[in-house]
Amino acid sequence: MAPGAKSAAARGKPSKANTEARSLKRKRDQDDVEKLRKAVDELDIKSPDIKSFTDLPLCSATFAGLRASHFETLTDVQKVAIPLALKGKDILGAAKTGSGKTLAFLVPVLEALYRAQWTELDGLGALIISPTRELAVQIFEVLRKIGRKHTFSAGLVIGGKSLLEEAERLGRMNILVCTPGRMLQHLDQTAGFDVNNLQILVLDEADRIMDMGFQSAVDALVDHLPKDRQTLLFSATQSKRVSDLARLSLKDPEYVSVHEEATSATPINLQQHYIVVPLAEKLETLWGFLRANLKSKIIVFLSSGKQVRFVYESFKRMQPGISLLHLHGRQKQLARLEVTSRFGAAKFACLFATDVVARGVDFPAVDWVIQADCPEDADTYIHRVGRTARYESKGKAVLFLEPTELAFLKRLAHKKVPIQKVNVKETKKKSITDQLQSLCFQSPDLKYLGQKAFISYTRSIHLQKDKEVFKFKKLDLDALAASMGLAGAPQIKFQKGEDVKRLKNASREAMSSGSESDHEGGEGKKSKKDEVRTKYQKMAERQNQDVLSSHYRKLLGDDDENNNGEEVDEQDFLAVKRVLGDDDLDKAAEDGTKDQAMPKVIQLGKSELVIDSNRREKLLKSKKKLLKFMDKPTKLVFDDDGNAHSLYELQDEDDFKQEGPAARLREEFVETEATKVREADVEDKQAAKDRRREKRDRAKARERGEELAQLEQQTARLGDSDEDEMDEDPLALLRSLPMPDDRDKVDSDGGDDEPPKKKAKKWFQDDSDDERAQLAAKNKKSGKKVIEMDHEPDNLQDLEALAAGLLD
């Protein structure tokens, strides 16, 4: 190479070998795409041989992702929908919940972008719209699993984060999973967000999108999208709104339905039951169910988020023995994601939730679905129970119905939902009303949650459209409030209708009509509606007001006369009925003195109690109230002569001076007290010395007893040897010791008393034992039964042992 020359790689240009390798790769990819397109064109969508993903014309990257995620066999909806979607057809699909609709649209999305050889520079290629954040997160996770071998970029736009942060990434995304409101916000506000190249649009759970009030948002969102696109619309149920959306979004769609001919709209492996529960017993029935199923995974559906919070907080404080979680729409996004992940990973747990997880969300291995509140319609019921018995697994569902809600069973029968009635065992019922009342009394926060939950539940019943099922006026609201631990039913604002106002104003109307005086012949009579009333007139009509209300009535008289016909001075603020002079006052005082009885005087110790009214007479019946009028007792001490003295007696100054100087009195007092202390100290020391001596004596006596026992054992061992071979008598020491009789004799002669010796265990056999053995053998031959006793029975146990021996 010439000096100063640079290679092609050093100059930043690709080498010839790299260029050829890239061109060969592009050619191979192009050939694979052409083969795939040809295979899709030749695919027979009605072929019965399509049973697994390997029977479909899919690219190797999709195959690898499905195999790594353990997806092999096609479900019923996937067998029909995926071939049609691969051919580019618009689809209007309806299938049972839990039938695998997610893969039915994700696989065609990946294949459509792969065949179009989509790159990051091409912008947004696929848009997937979900009604709830939880379902959108689940779809995104499945997309990540099966699309792990593809090079497409995917994003999740569901809110809960900064709009600017999401906007920065939108331009680089090929696939977006979103909720309607957030996506429409980006289309309206995010500059440079281009959707003109969109290839495929997916609407999952379209019926729920319409029910949640997203219809206007979806219509506006569809207007932003290009007309030349493929649209896949999936829903568990079909409604008029879904049909209207299909007419706006789909072109010559293929209708896919795999459960129209099914005998049930719910999974076959699902056991469905209902319980008739009065409103006041709903919470304690739910509590008993949780206590009986601690080793289960349970979802409990309630009608509102406030109910979810109250039931979760109250049950958590009572500790049922199972892990509790709660989920509702007002939680922050991070909290909702954490709850869904924790419940999905849990083996045994109970999740209290609203309908935010009733659609499409897949929680693994859910055993029970409890609907504590009746759903608004049969479709909502079908979606709720679809959280269990998914993908051919088994599950159970229980519906709580109030006696006035039994008409809901007709709605389920119309939807081909088989359900059976069950009853709760009496042994499983447990009242928790007292516990809830105690919790609400101790915690104002829980009481506040209970009041909000009560109002939320009653409002939801009041706003339901199906009045044949939901009868608000027949609900026992007082019993419901008591079952929630509340002292009384909270005030319901939406109940203040015309009937309540009419009852409230009935007394005022009656008062107003009665206060008007009829004029003669009816001339000059004015109705209350026609006359203009001032502020003071309105105040005068009110009842139970302050003391000034009567003054306002006097100010509103039609003439200048009061009730007694006397003229009222305009300068006076208060009008009086009668004015008394000095003579009248003296006369009234004399009359009152004559009529008044003489007061009674009662002597209470050194004080006197004057009874001059009935209230004072009642005091005599109450000892507790009467104590404050009596002399307080004082404590007395008695001297040696038996004379009583006060506990503390003050001495006069003169008497104190006569006793002598204060310094001398102080020295005498100190000397006297010091003498008492010294004497007490001597006594305490002598008592301590006596206790120590007694303790030493007991220890010595215990040691002597142990030495004697050891000596007896040694003597027994020596007694078994040959006496002729021993130089000394081994029992000499024993003979030298005093015998029991000798000890008694010594004690009787005035010797010191010794503590009783502990009886040593006998480990040897003496001559007396041989004699007893011979006697026992003789009695055995003669047939007599003899019981030997070491000592005379002196307690109940010895007597029982003797009786047992006699009975043998």
UniProtKB/TrEMBL annotation:
UniProt keyword annotations, A-Z: ATP-binding, Helicase, Hydrolase, Nucleotide-binding, Nucleus, Ribosome biogenesis, RNA-binding, rRNA processing
Pfam families: CTE_SPB4 (PF13959), DEAD (PF00270), Helicase_C (PF00271)
Reactions accelerated catalytically: ATP + H2O = ADP + phosphate + H(+)
Key word Nucleus present: yes
CDD domains from the UniProt entry: DEADc_DDX10, SF2_C_DEAD
Residue stretches making up the Helicase ATP-binding domain: 82-256
SMART domains for this protein: DEXDc, DUF4217, HELICc
Subcellular location: Nucleus, Nucleolus
Biased composition (Basic and acidic residues): 516-544, 664-707, 785-794
Any one GO biological process: rRNA processing
Domain (Helicase C-terminal) ranges: 269-436
Protein function: RNA helicase.
Family from the record: Belongs to the DEAD box helicase family.
Free-text note regarding domains: The Q motif is unique to and characteristic of the DEAD box family of RNA helicases and controls ATP binding and hydrolysis.
Name of this protein: ATP-dependent RNA helicase
